[in-house]
Amino acid sequence: MNLQSGIDLTVIIPAYNEMENLTVILPSLISHCRENNWRIILVNDGSRDETKDFLKGFENEPALRILHHKLNKGYGAAIKTGISACETDYLITYDADGQHYLDDIERLVACLIKHDADMVVGSRKGIKSASITRGVGKSIIRLIARIMMTVPIHDINSGMKIYRTDLAKKYLYLTTNTMSFSDVITLIFINNRHLVVEEPIRIKERNTGKSTIGFQTAFQTIMEIINIVILFSPMKIFLPLSLVSIIITMSWGIPLALQGRGVSMGTLLGIVVTLLFFLLGLITEQLSLIRRNQHQEPT
Questions:
Q1: Mean pLDDT, rounded, of the chain
Q2: Residue 124 near residue 158, CB atoms below 8 Å
Q3: At 100, is the secondary structure helix, strand, or coil?
Q4: Selected residue with higher pLDDT from 220 and 209
Q5: Among residues 202, 17, 223, which one has the least CA distance to residue 107?
Q6: In what order do the strands lie in the sheet with 39-45?
């Protein structure tokens, strides 16, 4: 298949206070998309710099559609706005900070076609993080995700991914408005048994500006991962809690019973807590099934 014309693709760019970086990346990206007959949706997420004024110069560009949020809603919200407006079969998310290479779009497209994948994640595995804080945060996120579910992808929080638009639109109601969007959408695809593969990409230093990703973002992402686990496999959380509770209860209660002191109040409380965790898991399993089936899944 000819990659230049064989795939119907939109490049979605969320942008917040990235005017200086956009002056560098946008002209070349527009030219690149013209050559490949691709489209661009740029979502200005309530930027407080000169982004909106800068984008006025591109309003007549046929390959580019510009959408504006009146207020800053978040990285995920900007991508969701772009996905909702997307009319092509596939979309790729592309950060506005100037860290991606244009050639890597073709790399991900080729991987998508080769594997007939539903999502291809641009992997930064082996690339040193811009800061120790970000590196530690990403490591914690990956560790938590792997503990709680089967994750065959290393770089779940990569900002550069290509995936099917119909599936993305179907799962928008499950995603977040925050920086954790990238992690959550990947985990949703994986848990719904869609084919998700990984392809190495390169990363540049930011042209200008400073990343806002830190420990707070990592904490938010971990909480969203827990929410996704509860949505898809709640017993993975509640069953271990039940087991831990009963082990602690028996460790406390059996020695007392052997000493002829009967069943203590602490033991009874532990048994009740164990049952509560287990029953909560069963109830949550049914509720999550109802929520997941709110929309019929596309094939």
A1: 84
A2: yes
A3: coil
A4: 220
A5: 202
A6: 64-69, 39-45, 9-15, 90-93, 161-164, 119-123, 196-200
Q: What is the mean pLDDT of residues 190-219?
A: 75
Determine if the pTM surpasses 0.85: no
How far apart (Å, rounded) are the C-alpha atoms in residues 92 and 251? 53
d(CA 17, CA 288): 37
Question: What's the whole-number mean pLDDT along residues 88-97?
Answer: 95
Dihedral sign for Cα 122, 97, 93, 109, please: negative
State the pLDDT at residue 127. 59
Consecutive H or E run containing 117: none
E strands present in 141-213:
161-164, 196-200
Residue with tokens 């929080």: 157
Closest among 238, 227, 239 to 191, alpha carbons compared: 227
